[in-house]
Amino acid sequence: MESLLAEFQMEAKTTRNMLERIPDDKFDYKPHDKSFSMGKLASHIAEIPGWVEVSIEADELDFATYKYTPPDVKNNEELLAFFDKSIADASEVFKRNSDEKLKENWTMRQGDTVYFSTHKAGVIRSFVLSHIIHHRGQLSVYMRINEIPLPSVYGPTADEQM
After folding, report:
1. Which residues of 94-111 are buried (b: 16+ CB within 10 A; e: fewer)?
2. Domain chopping of the chain, boundaries
3. Domain 2-145 has what CATH class?
4. What are 56-99's pLDDT values in tens digits?
């Protein structure tokens, strides 16, 4: 659990560095009609760490019965507060669980339709971490288009030479 928590916290730091650069006046920006707005995309990224709890402490997520309420953040200050709380809550979930828990099976479904079923460690890596990284990549494109300097992620960027 310790190594997964360390990886989670490293990605959280990188993600926060991106989120903190989003100006309030760009929250409504959309690169395409079918795209999330920058604010909605950033809010989605900020909510994903909250999925650690259901991924470790539940055995499934059934969209047929799950009551989803998307986050409603209106500016960068609210975004960062929401993200920081999501990270803190997820970190506590990691700390109160064991490696044995990560070996248990977890299923994502919509009623009788099973989307996937795997061990909880795999769920954290794919459904949580890879999901954050995927959307963070999308956000970096939104930021580049809007001339928002990109922070270092896994090394220097054209905007930040470590």
Report:
1. beebeeebbeeebebbee
2. 2-145
3. mainly alpha
4. 999 999 999 999 999 999 999 999 999 999 999 999 999 999 99
